[in-house]
Design a protein that fits this description.
The chain is an alpha/beta fold. It has helices at 2-6, 18-49, 53-61, 84-96, 101-127, 155-165, 194-199, 214-220, and strands spanning 136-140, 169-173, 202-205, 224-226, 238-240. The longest helix has 32 residues, at 18-49.
Length: 241
């Protein structure tokens, strides 16, 4: 097997068994899942404490050892982080009889982030004397991470469904996700152009795709909620996560 994969990749890392190989993948995904949950919960609390979580993360990243940079966002998605750690926790409890509490806590934090984003959206619109019902909201990013077309378990779609249920006029944009993607609910897909930005009551950045026109978003959108810190160094009207 090592000889076979050696023909396909530059470096192979042999381990002692298929169980170890599986745990390598689960360990890496669980590590990211737990650390994303940590920084997500810190982002929620930092706002209540009046602290800029993004600046704090930048400063912590200046440490040359003992720290890895993770940033907050609207939740986790894809086939790895929402699923693999839960499988590991289930397997541990079934075979060993103990709960994997780190994973359970991370699941709880990350699964609540879409609801938190919706609550922040509601507050932002309230400050403009507008309600969610009837508000025209443009969501930027449907994939679960930047540069991919994969929308499996995407927190963006959870947010879209919740806003749609609350009566918002939700528009979706993501140039990476195919237009024939079977999205639920089947909300309108639009371009992220000057007219659409200007017509929106609120623009919400959910995925930090490189191809989003961030300068135009800051210039044209009347109100922006940036959940990924994409425009934090630009001038815009709105808030960061």
């Amino acid at each position: 097997m090592e000889a076979f994969y050696g023909m396909l990749v530059e470096k192979t890392v042999p381990v002692g068994s298929t169980g170890e190989a599986e745990l390598v993948k689960l360990l890496e995904n669980t590590f990211r899942h737990v650390n994303v949950a940590l920084v997500n919960e810190l982002a929620v609390f930092a706002r209540e404490l009046g602290v800029d979580i993004w600046s704090a993360i930048d400063a912590a990243t200046s440490k040359p050892f003992g720290y890895l940079r993770f940033t907050p966002g609207p939740g986790v998605g894809g086939h790895c982080l929402p699923i693999d750690p839960s499988y590991l926790a289930w397997r541990v409890e079934r075979r060993v009889g103990h709960r994997f509490q780190f994973v359970e806590l991370a699941n709880d934090v990350n699964s609540r982030m879409p609801e938190y984003v919706v609550s922040r959206i509601t507050s932002l619109l309230n400050e403009e004397s507008k309600s969610v019902r009837g508000a025209r909201i443009l969501l930027l990013g449907l994939a679960y991470k930047p540069g991919t077309s994969d929308w499996r378990e995407s927190p963006s779609m959870v947010i879209a469904r919740q806003l749609h249920t609350l009566g918002a006029d939700v528009r979706l944009h993501d140039s990476h996700v195919p237009h024939d993607a079977d999205l639920v609910p089947p909300l309108p897909r639009v371009d992220c152009d000057a007219a659409e930005l200007h017509a929106s009551d609120l623009v919400v950045i959910l995925v930090d795709h490189d191809d989003l026109p961030y300068d135009e978003i800051c210039e044209r959108a009347p109100l922006v909620f940036d959940t990924k810190g994409c425009i934090r160094d630009r001038t815009f009207r709105g808030e960061l996560l």
